[in-house]
Records
---
Amino acid sequence: MTVHSDPVAMTIPTFDDVIAAHERIMPHIHRTPVLTSSYLNALTGAELFFKCENFQKAGAFKVRGASNAVFGLSEDMLQRGVATHSSGNHALSLSYAAGRRGIPCTVVMPRTAPQAKKDAVRGYGGKIIECEPSTSSREATFAKVVAETGAEFVHPYNDPRVIAGQATCSRELLEQTDGLDAVIAPIGGGGMISGTCLTLSRLAPEMKIYAAEPDQADDAARSFRAGHIIADDAPVTVADGLKVPLKELTWHFVKSYVTDVLTASEDEIIEAMKITWKRMKIVMEPSCAVPLATILRNPEVFRGKRIGVIITGGNVDLDHLPWLKG
Amino acid sequence: MTVHSDPVAMTIPTFDDVIAAHERIMPHIHRTPVLTSSYLNALTGAELFFKCENFQKAGAFKVRGASNAVFGLSEDMLQRGVATHSSGNHALSLSYAAGRRGIPCTVVMPRTAPQAKKDAVRGYGGKIIECEPSTSSREATFAKVVAETGAEFVHPYNDPRVIAGQATCSRELLEQTDGLDAVIAPIGGGGMISGTCLTLSRLAPEMKIYAAEPDQADDAARSFRAGHIIADDAPVTVADGLKVPLKELTWHFVKSYVTDVLTASEDEIIEAMKITWKRMKIVMEPSCAVPLATILRNPEVFRGKRIGVIITGGNVDLDHLPWLKG
C-alpha cells in the first residue's frame, strides 16, 4: 500500500527487517519478562500483561533499535563509528551497543544534562560532546561532529533500523502471551509505537494499538486528530521521555495503524507510577506510567480485555522521585 | 541427630514437612523469579542469583510460612481462625492466607504502627486489635485475643509450620539455578535462615549458608560467636525487618548449619539498597540489601563463587526512602 515514489515510503521498514533485526540483536539484548499483577487487574477490570523493558540492557527498549543500527553497520563504516544527539535512553543505548561492537560512539548532549546521564554514557564507553541547551547549538555541534568523524548518524526514532529494532519488543510480547485484545505503549517521538504497529499489522492485524501520552505533551493526540504532524514547543511534563515530536517515519505508522491516542494528567501519571512501584515492586520511569494512567482514566475502553502494556525503561533519578516533590 | 527428650527437638520440622508444605501452599504463592545483574556480578566479582521474594504474594517470603500454617489447620480449628502479633510482613501474610481460606485473622499491632501497614492488613481482610507500643501491653492484649477467640497462634518465625514454609524458597532456588556454592539471606528472628538450613542440609549439605544482619542489630552474630541466644534491647536500624531476636527453634538451625553471620553498617546497607534499585530496577526493603552489603564488605569470601541471594520482600514506604533522609 506504500507509494514508492514517496521518499519516506522508500525507507519504511518491513516485517522482514524486524525478523533480521531480532536475529541480529538477540545476543546483545535480554528477552525481558512479562509480569502480571492481580491487584492492578482488579483495579482496572482488565487483564494486564506488562512487558518489562525496564529490565532491558542499558535500562530501556531503546537498546533494541540502537543495537540493530550498530550491528547492521557495514565493515567499512566501523572505524568511523556512530553518533547521535540525545540526553536520554537513546544515548545510553547507542553507547552500550557501540561498546559491544568495539566502535566509537559520539553523543552530542546539552551541558545542562544530568550528571548521572553523562556518567552512564561514559560508563558504556561513549564520548560526549557538550553543546548549549538550544536547538541551534545542538545542530551546529552535531554537524561539526559528523563532519570531523564521518560517523553514521543514528536518529533516536526517525530511522528505519531503529524502528525495526523496537518492533522486536512486541514480537516477543506476542510470543509470551496467549492472545491479546490490544497493546498500549507510551508515545514520544513514536519509535516504540511505530515498531509495535509494524509487528502487529503483520502478526495480529485485528489487535488494537493505543498510544499514551501526557496531557501536557499531547502533540501526538493532536496530530492524530488533525491528520498531520503538530509539534509542541518545549512541553513540560514529568514524563521526560515523551517530550519529542513525531517525524515523517513514525507519523506514517501512527496515522496508518494506531487505534487511538489517549492522554493523562501529571497527577494521574505520578499516581500510576507510584502504584506500580508499590504493587509490582518494579522501578520504572514516569513515561512508563502513562499507559496505566490512561487505562485508569478510560476504564470502559479496556474493561474485560487482555491488554499488553509496554514498560519502556527504568532509568530513574532515585534522588528526585516525582511524588516527593514540593 | 536430634534428641527427642528435648521439647524443642520434638518440634523441629523435617524435610518431609517442607515437601508437604510446598504442595500445600503452591496454589497460593508465586514461584518467584531468579534475576541476575551483570553490573553487580562485575562489582562483586561473584556470580549472584537473586531469588526475588519481593515479587511474592503479599510482597514477602513470609506468605510461605503463613500459608503453610493456615492451610494446614484442621477443619475444627477453622471457625476460630488464626492470630498473631506483628507490625510487619507476617501480619500481612497471615491476613492474606487467612483471607484465601476464608477464616478469621486477628493481628495485635501497636497503635503507633504505620497507617500503610494497618491499611494493608485490613485490605487482606485481617482484623487489627491495637495495643500500646510495649511488650507488656502486647502480651496482655494478645492473651486476651486468644482467650476470647480461641484462635490458633502463628508465631512469625518460632513455629515449625512457618519454618517448613519458608524452606520452600531455597528449594525453588536450587531448582532454578544450576549449582551454587553458597546461599545468603538476611537474619532477624531467623525464620528464613532456618528454612534455608532445613532445605540445604538435606539437598545440598556441602553448600555454605551465610546469614546477614546490620552492625546495629547484630544479636545473631553475637549469639553465633557466644554459642547461646543473645537478644538485643530495642536495636535501631534502617533494616526494620531484622530487629527481632532468635528463639529456640531458629537458634537450633543457626547453631547447627550456618557457616557464618556477617554484618554491615547502616551506610553500607543503604548504598547496597540504592544500587540494587538503580541497577536491577526492583523495589525491595532495606533488610533485603543487607546480604549484598555484606558481600561488598567481604569480597574475599565470595569472589569467584556462585551465590544465591534471597531478596526477602518489597513492602517499602515509598514516601520515606532511606537515602533521602535528613
Note: The beta strands of chain B are 34-35, 47-52, 82-85, 105-110, 127-131, 152-153, 182-186, 208-214, 260-264, 306-311.
---
Amino acid sequence: MKNLLIAASAVKRLATQLANFTDKVNLFEMQADGSVTHGGEPVSLADIDIHCGWLSSDIMAAKLTRDYAISLLKSSTLEWVQSLSAGLDDPFFTKLAEKGIRLSNSDAQAPAIAEYVVASVLQRYQGFDIRKQFQNDAKWQANDFKEIYNSNWLIIGLGNIGQLVADRVTAFGGNVTGVKRDPNRANDYPLIGFDNINANLAQQDVVVLACALTADTRDLVDQAFLAQMKPDAIIVNIGRGDLVKEDELLIALDKDAIDFAVLDVFRTEPLPEKSRFWNHPKVLVTPHSSNRGLGTDSRGDSLFLANLDAYINNKVLKNEVNTTELRPAV
Amino acid sequence: MKNLLIAASAVKRLATQLANFTDKVNLFEMQADGSVTHGGEPVSLADIDIHCGWLSSDIMAAKLTRDYAISLLKSSTLEWVQSLSAGLDDPFFTKLAEKGIRLSNSDAQAPAIAEYVVASVLQRYQGFDIRKQFQNDAKWQANDFKEIYNSNWLIIGLGNIGQLVADRVTAFGGNVTGVKRDPNRANDYPLIGFDNINANLAQQDVVVLACALTADTRDLVDQAFLAQMKPDAIIVNIGRGDLVKEDELLIALDKDAIDFAVLDVFRTEPLPEKSRFWNHPKVLVTPHSSNRGLGTDSRGDSLFLANLDAYINNKVLKNEVNTTELRPAV
C-alpha cells in the first residue's frame, strides 16, 4: 500500500476514479484549513509515512501550497510527486531532486497557454479595437491586418508548451525556429542554441519566452537582446518574469524599439500596483493566468490518474523529469 | 500573341515579372478612369480582340469592376479570366461559363480569411475585453477562458478557405466536421452532406459558413437551423450574406438561442446604417474584409503570374473552375 497526500476537494471530484485504487493507495486528505484526515478521521502527518503527492490546482487555489510542500518534504518515505505546472524553478523541486524523489511535471496547461499565445498575437495583428470602433460608429470601413501566415517566430524553449505553440503557428503558415539548450538533437523544427539567439532576432516577428528559468536564462531579455529585435516585433512571456529585465523592456517599448509585449508573468507577482506595465499602451498584462483554459483542470486530473497508475505498477511516468538535469534558478 | 486586359496599376507593380511575357502577351491597360491604353497610347476596345483578363484587386479598388466585366464580355475572342475571389455567384461568372470561357478563381485570400475566422472565435473565447478592464484597473485578477482544444467545428463548405480553417482548428486540437455537396469523396476530415446539417448542429461549438452561394444554399441558416444550435455556440459567416436569413438570426441572438455571430458578409452591402447588427452586443460586424490580410495581394499577384504562364503554355491552371458545375445563385 502507498500513502497519498491529496487535496480533499480532489478526492471528492475524483471519487469514482480513485475507487479503482482502493486496495493499493491510502488517501490522506488535506482539508481547506490545512488539517489532514484519513477515512474521515483527523490524523497527524507526523505519524504517517507519505509515499506520494499531487500538487494539484486545488492545493494552489486553497493557498495550501506551502503547507503541502512542507508536509511532503518532512516525509522520509516520499517517492514520487506530481506537479501541476511545467516550471520547476521553485526551490521545492530542487529539494525533491536533491533527495532523489521522482518528479513528474504537467503538460495539462500547455494547450491553454498555446492558445493564449497565438490569440494574443492575433489580437494585436487583427485590429479588433479598430473594428469595434468602426462597428460602434456604423462605419463600413475595412482594416488591413497583419498575418501569422509567413511570419517568423522564435520560440525560446521547445518543451511541452513551446512545441504546441510551434504546431499552431506552423498550421497558420508561420515559420518557426526553436531555441533549445542542445540544438543538435533531432526536432520537427530548425533549432538554434541560446548563444545564437541575439544573432537571429532581426528576422523575427514574434519572440516567445517558453523556457525554464535557470541561472543561465535569468535576465535573458535585456537591452542587448531587445536592440536586435525589429521595431514591429512582438515579445510574449509565458515563462517566468525573471527571464526579462523589466526596466530595459519598458525602455524599449517607450522608444518604439519593439511593437508590443504580451506579459503573463512578472518578476514580482502579483504585479505591484505602481508598475508601469499596467497602463502602458503597448503591453497586455495578464495575471499569470495563461494556463486558465477551461480544459486545464480535467487534463490535469487525467494526467495524475494515469501517472498514479504508472507509479503503482512501476511503469514509466508521463512527463517524468530527469532531476539530475534540474538546474537551479539562482 | 495573346491580348490581356489588365489594370494599369497592376502593370506598374509587376513590370519586372510581366517583362518575361513580352513576346507572348500584349498588355491593354485599363486606367483609373476606365479608359484603355496600349504602349502608352489610347485605344478603343471595340477594335481589339481581348483573349484574357485578370479581375484584380486594383480593378475592385478603382471601382472599375463593372466597366471591366462589360469589356471582357464584349470580346468574342475571350478565352480565360482570372478572378480575385473564391465566390462565383456573381452573374458575370455565369455568363463566362455559358460562353465556355475558362475561369480560375483565387485562393490568395484564403490564409487571411482563415486567420480572421480563428482569431474572431479566440477573441470571443479568450475574454480580451475583461482582461483589458482588469488591466486598466491594475487588478491582478484572472479570467478563465474557453478553449478551441477539444471544441467541435462544423465547416460548411470545405473549399480553399474552409480547408485552411479546418487545418488551423485541428492544430489547436479542435474537432472538425466538413459539409460538402458530395460527402462521399475522400477527404482529410469526416464529411456530411447538406441534408444532414441540422441533425449535426447540436454537437457544434462553432459553425462556419464557407460555402458557395447557390440556389440550394441561399437562406441555409434559418429559424430551423438556428434552433438546433447550442446556446453557447458561435456562428461565423465569411461566405455570402444570402446564406443567412438575417431577421431570424437576430431573433436567435436576442433570445440567447446562440452565443455570438461573427459576420463579414451581409445580404445588403454596405450594411445599411439602420441595421440592428451594428450595435448588437452579440455580433462582430466587419465590412466584407476578412480577406484583407497584408499578404493577400502579393499571393494574388503570384497566382495570376503562374496562371498566365500556364495559360500561354496550355498547361493546367491552378484553381480552374469546372464551369459546367457552376450553379446559379438564384
Note: The longest strand of chain B covers residues 2-7.
